[in-house]
Amino acid sequence: MTLDFGDMRFVKGHGTENDFVILPDADGRLDLSAAAVAALCDRRAGIGADGVLRVVRSKVDPEAAGLADEAEWFMDYRNADGSVAEMCGNGVRVFARYLVDAGLAAPGEFGVATRGGIKRVRLGAAGDVSVDMGMPRVLGAGTAVVGGREYHGLNVSMGNPHLACLIDDPVAGLDLTVEPGYDRATYPHGVNVELINPAGDHAVSMRVHERGSGETRSCGTGAVATAVAAARAAGEETGTWAVHVLGGTVSVTLDGRTSHLAGPAVLVASGELPAVL
Ligand SMILES: N[C@@H](CCC[C@H](N)C(=O)O)C(=O)O
């Protein structure tokens, strides 16, 4: 199959190694198929990424036009397999970094439209980008099956679905090359599964298997769900957690009203797509 990209430009970026192909499409001219996303994200035959961030003006996109008064730009996020997701915490931080570096937004604080609503982002002086992720919704309990073992966890919605499991087995030894088992009736649209070990005072280690992308080296919405599960286990409702992931560390603050995710967000390359890929 050949895919026509018409010589469009791209930027590559990541947040704690959760990596993205960024496609500038201000006027919403790009008809981005699932096959095109999967081809771009292919780590051998494409650019390689966990997902795609299409950068489009909110007012020209039917999914975001209603949010245009609050956010000029809409993050159209797609998973590596081409599926659509409601939210991406690392993605929105990288998206904000791109907007500022491209001169499309002023440094400081501003809103980004997502399928999960408006997210307020802030660029710090040290290069970190933080985002108000909203109040996590705890929806009950759930069970994941990894390597034939059952792990109990918390069903947390961050706009997108999570199953955050605090476990006794070391997360380093888990095989996440295959999708964990989970209850399809609870998660009819799939789920992101986090496996978590305590790693000190208000610190945890997390690995994640993402819906639509497989195991990734970090997941922002997953880090917030992880902090919620860790807080519950500690009998706390507020506080700041360091979430160590394969690609670095992010910080999550729960204040009882909302949640904040902070960490690095960097752009590493840019270029032009060939007419056909
Ligand atoms: N990596 C993201 C989450 C991306 C979406 C997820 N795979 C889903 O399908 O819900 C993050 O940083 O939050």
UniProtKB/TrEMBL annotation:
Function: Catalyzes the stereoinversion of LL-2,6-diaminopimelate (L,L-DAP) to meso-diaminopimelate (meso-DAP), a precursor of L-lysine and an essential component of the bacterial peptidoglycan.
This protein's record includes keyword Isomerase: yes
Enzyme class: isomerase
Segments passing through the bilayer: none
Keyword Amino-acid biosynthesis among record annotations: yes
Assembly notes: Homodimer.
Keywords: Amino-acid biosynthesis, Cytoplasm, Isomerase, Lysine biosynthesis
Subcellular location: Cytoplasm
Site (Could be important to modulate the pK values of the two catalytic cysteine residues): 162, 210
EC number: 5.1.1.7
Pathway: Amino-acid biosynthesis; L-lysine biosynthesis via DAP pathway; DL-2,6-diaminopimelate from LL-2,6-diaminopimelate: step 1/1
HAMAP family to which the protein is assigned, alphabetical: DAP_epimerase (MF_00197)
Highest taxon of the lineage: Bacteria
Reactions performed catalytically: (2S,6S)-2,6-diaminopimelate = meso-2,6-diaminopimelate
Sequence positions that bind substrate: 18, 79, 89-90, 160, 192, 210-211, 220-221
Organism: Microbispora corallina
Location of the active site: 88, 219
UniProt record similarity statement: Belongs to the diaminopimelate epimerase family.
Protein name per UniProt: Diaminopimelate epimerase
